[in-house]
Write a structure and sequence with these properties.
With 460 residues, the protein is an alpha/beta fold. The chain has 2 domains: 4-228 and 442-454, Rossmann fold, CATH 3.40.50; 231-439, Rossmann fold, CATH 3.40.50.2000. It contains 17 helices and 16 strands. The structure holds adenosine-5'-diphosphate-glucose. Adenosine-5'-diphosphate-glucose binds next to α13.
Length: 460
């Protein structure tokens, strides 16, 4: 039977068998690897003085992880540089923040070649290879250059930017050309897929035919494959002791007020400033409702060495200080802003205690927080999800209150509407959303992708 070789920038950390400590993606990929056998390869997250390609293999939970250390220049140019300063902002439509440096592009290519050299000897003839995300776009082509004729798939976890935006990247065509080394390319939504297809056809002369794109002598299948969460696991977590204790603690501290919650990595794509401004607008427009609500925003810092992340952090501190300074009262603080990460079972309790889940990214490949919020609700008394229409999740979660996060008025109106929503309507919307979260969960996602990959005829 074919094994699966998963390749991603970071490999899920060892969790000592504690399922609740992993994210949904790690759960799904670990499950696939345990079932099919295989290896999960990636960067260890560690720095070494000089790159040697030495692999650290670890056996855990029925599969093997293989990790490699990178040297400082690789980390700076490939990870902090091209991945986080060039592709991430560009793929989230922020060309104002994207930095185009030949050094980053060169380091990205070099590091992907190093990954290819390192992982190549681990790949056996029957294995299927599944490359994850924007850190590793050229990896498939580098594996082909090293004689890998196996099935190779690629899944993009971020949006794919519109053609005109991608055209601003100096090496856009080269990068897209490398993607024709894959057999299947997966996107969360039809919109991201269409943007990719537009660039390939209109800028490069590829030919589209149904789900396939033809370019030179290659044919690649494009697949819409929206990622889900491990809904059952999350539901179980939300009924466990820690979640229950957190729920009770939050309800006590809310003291009869309605809690609105936001949970995000601290990232400029998540629309946090817009969220704060929309909430402020609600408070200003509805003075009578003020003291009945508060917003809890949980946002652990990420990518702290990148300037744009330092700027968004400073800006949010200022804005939250301003809102609290202008509106707080002796016994009421409108905004609790917390820069911490919490275990998933604690988050589940927080979600359940919240009357509103406020998810306002300006762009997001999918957004799993929206799905976790739904999975954690009390079926008898569920909260309301307010969701940006610019997330991948919005394509599936049409029963949420969908908003344009650039409009403070729309956010404000949606908060007002959610707070007044009758219980029957909340239950009706929640049921429809929960049904989708359970049906198209992370196991479904993984199966859909690997099914498409195994349908590809093997090269003769
Ligand atoms: P992210 O940008 O990280 O993922 P998201 O999909 O929301 O965004 O996933 C975040 C995960 O981190 C969630 O599971 C959430 O619970 C967890 N998390 C967030 N804040 C936390 C906190 N304070 N404490 C603990 N955990 C926290 C990228 C893409 C997304 C895409 C995913 C999966 O940007 O668009 O949905 O990959 O493909």
């Amino acid at each position: 039977m074919s094994r699966l070789i998963v390749i991603s920038n970071r490999v899920s950390a060892a969790t000592g068998g504690k399922k609740g400590a992993q994210g949904g993606l790690a759960v799904a990929l670990s499950a696939a690897l345990s079932e099919m056998g295989g290896i999960w390869f990636g960067w260890s997250g560690e720095q070494t003085d000089e790159f040697t390609g030495q692999i650290t293999m670890q056996r855990e939970g029925g599969f093997t992880t293989a990790t490699v250390d990178l040297e400082e220049q690789d980390i700076e140019e490939y990870y902090n540089g091209y991945a986080n300063r060039t592709l991430w902002p560009l793929f989230h439509y922020r060309i104002d923040l994207a930095e185009y440096e030949r050094g980053y592009a060169g380091g990205y290519q070099r590091t992907n070649e190093r990954f290819a050299d390192t992982v190549r000897p681990l790949i056996e003839d029957d294995d299927a290879v599944w490359v994850q995300d924007y850190h590793m776009i050229p990896l498939g082509a580098e594996l082909r250059n090293r004689g890998v004729h196996n099935r190779i798939g690629f899944f993009l976890h971020t949006p794919w930017p519109p053609r005109r935006l991608l055209s601003t990247l100096p090496e856009a065509k080269d990068l897209v050309e490398t993607m024709f080394a894959y057999d299947v390319i997966g996107f969360h939504t039809e919109e991201w897929l269409q943007s990719f297809s537009d660039f390939a056809t209109l800028e490069m002369g590829a030919r589209a035919e149904g789900d396939f794109l033809h370019f030179r002598n290659r044919r690649v299948r494009m697949l819409v494959c929206p990622i889900g969460i491990d809904a059952e696991e999350f539901r179980t977590l939300s009924q466990g002791d820690t979640a229950r204790q957190t729920y009770e603690q939050m309800m006590r501290s809310a003291n009869g007020r309605s809690m609105i919650v936001g949970v995000d990595r601290l990232d400029y794509s998540k629309g946090l400033e817009e969220r704060f401004l929309g909430y402020e607008r609600f408070l200003l427009e509805h003075p009578e409702e003020r003291r009945g609500v508060f917003l809890l925003q949980i946002a652990p810092p990420s990518r702290a060495s990148v300037d744009s992340y330092q700027r968004i952090r400073a800006s949010l501190e200022k804005l939250s200080g301003h809102i609290n300074g202008a509106l707080a009262d002796l016994d009421w603080v409108p905004l609790r802003y917390v820069n911490e990460g919490y275990p998933r079972d604690v988050l589940a309790g927080v979600y359940r205690a919240s009357s509103i889940g406020l998810v306002t990214p300006l762009r997001d490949g999918m957004n799993l927080v929206a799905k976790e919020y739904i999975a954690a609700q009390d079926p008898e008394d569920p909260g309301v999800l307010i969701l940006s229409r610019f997330t991948g999740a919005a394509a599936q979660m049409t029963e949420a209150i969908l908003i344009n996060p650039h409009s403070a008025e729309e956010i404000s109106d949606a908060i007002g509407r959610a707070l007044k929503m009758p219980r029957e309507e909340r239950i009706r919307r929640w049921k429809a959303l929960m049904e989708g979260v359970q049906r198209e969960d992370v196991i479904w996602w993984r199966q859909r992708f690997t099914d498409a990959l195994f349908e590809v005829p093997l090269a003769a």
